[in-house]
Amino acid sequence: MYRLFGMSGSGNCHKVRLLLEQLGLDYRWQEVDVVGGATREPAFLALNPNGRVPLLELEPGVLLPESNAILCYLADGTPLWPTERLARARTLQWLFFEQYTHEPAIAVARFIRQFLPPDHPRRQELPRLLDRGRAALDVMEQHLSTQPFFVGDRYSIADIGLFPYTRAADEGGFDLAGYPAIGAWFRRVEAQPGFVAMEKPGAPR
Amino acid sequence: MYRLFGMSGSGNCHKVRLLLEQLGLDYRWQEVDVVGGATREPAFLALNPNGRVPLLELEPGVLLPESNAILCYLADGTPLWPTERLARARTLQWLFFEQYTHEPAIAVARFIRQFLPPDHPRRQELPRLLDRGRAALDVMEQHLSTQPFFVGDRYSIADIGLFPYTRAADEGGFDLAGYPAIGAWFRRVEAQPGFVAMEKPGAPR
User: Fold this and answer.
1) Are A121 and A108 in contact (CB under 8 A)?
2) Rounded distance, CA A42 to CA B85, Å?
3) B97 with A62: Cβ contact below 8 A
4) What's the CA dihedral at B25, B30, B31, B33 to 10 degrees?
């Protein structure tokens, strides 16, 4: 059975949970108190020297970090990661877009607003994060105006990678009303078998 | 023949050039004036709505962005991207580490110091970027103390993805003297057949 080290309310962790649920794989969720500093403690750093969740234990002592690498590992050999060469590269294109362009704006804005105190100095980063996040949403909206999912006409790990933080973008201060194609994509993703929503920040699991 | 839209002195672009050279593939380099705003112009945005280089034209009208997705595409079917399931995921693990943890600190520090005027307000970001970059280098040093390359004992696109900005980290203000395992890895990478070094910022090509 897999063991998933994660933080409830983290989109990076939720991606992995969503895929595990959709593939019907057995796993145990192990909550990690990231905000309380647990990922900086020696016991955790011995598991992942980069000090981040999610972290998937494949078997005792074999640990895989990086949310999108975990998605690729778990989806290997399933229809959720296409095998045709260009479709496979396009899937990775969107997963790298997510980690490089999308998450550092949209997820970080949500983190500052939802997880830090209202007077925290990092709030001054919000205007720039909102600009950059809207640019990322614009790219997604334009793409989804031409096709139902990120790679061709099939649901894949590219959709799973992009879904959690986009769906929660309102919690970061983004107004999604101007993004109808993204809204329609939300409904298509939420209609997939085995779909589970991410809990709100602070909500009990 | 491939066409590679890139900016000389960009590590993200150099990765792709290095792999094309090492695979002996025919390509044409098309210089893009990123600092001058060329990636924000309509003609370029029609090719890549996300407005970034590198961008690889596979054939007329078929364009693939995201440096590390391009590496995976080009290395597909070669020994530079392992096919065994866990080794493939570990390769992706390091490529996502590069784009999420490493590049936003180490490459951005270099960009601020080498490409922006000395009085630019973004220089105030440098102390935090140096802290975060050193943490990324520590993770790499620890890993390379136990094995010669990032994934097992073979050179792969994980090494190609991490090499350019690490090799140029001194241009961002990082002192690499305290990283002997990284230094030894530089020499192993530079000894690979077909290796080409990245040009210095501002150097003619």
Assistant:
1) no
2) 29
3) no
4) -130
Residue with tokens 């693939």: B64
* CB-facing half-sphere around the CA of B133: CA atoms within 13 A: 28
Tracing tokens 């905000």 back to the chain, one arrives at A35
Length of chain A in terms of residues written = 205
Q: State how beta strands B2-6 and B27-31 pair.
A: parallel
Q: Kindly determine whether residue B92 and residue A65, on different chains, have CB atoms separated by under 8 Å.
A: no
Q: Is the pLDDT of residue A170 over 50?
A: yes
Ranges assigned E (strand) in B11-161 = 27-31, 55-59, 62-65
Helix orientation angle between B126-144 and B157-167, rounded to the nearest 10 degrees: 140
Interface A:B, Cβ pairs < 8 A: 101
- In tens, the pLDDT along A181-202 reads 999 999 999 999 999 999 887 6
CB contact under 8 A, B64 and A97: no
Q: Which of residues 153-192 of A touch B (CB under 8 A)?
A: none
Distance in angstroms (rounded) separating the CA atoms of residues B56 and B17: 10
Per-residue model confidence as pLDDT tens digits over B114-144: 999 999 999 999 999 999 999 999 999 999 9
Residue A43, both tokens: 């016991």
Nearest by Cα to B158 from B104, B107, B87:
B87
Are the beta carbons of B99 and A103 separated by less than 8 Å? no
- Residue A6, φ and ψ in degrees, nearest 5: -155, 170
Residues of A in contact with B93 (CB under 8 A): 64-66, 69
Q: Which amino acid, B85?
A: R
Q: What angle, rounded to 10 degrees, do the helices at A11-23 and A157-167 form?
A: 140
Distance (Å, whole) CA A169 – CA A176: 8
What is the four-CA torsion angle of A50, A8, B104, B139, rounded to 10 degrees? 0
The answer to whether residue A57 neighbours chain B at the CB level (below 8 Å) is no
Is residue A113 within 8 A of residue A126, CB to CB? The reply is yes
- Asked if A195 is an interface residue toward chain B (Cβ–Cβ < 8 A), one would say no
Q: Is the pTM of this model over 0.90?
A: yes
Most distant pair of Cα atoms in chain A: their distance: 50
- Taking a C-beta distance cutoff of 8 angstroms, is the pair A48, A60 a contact? no
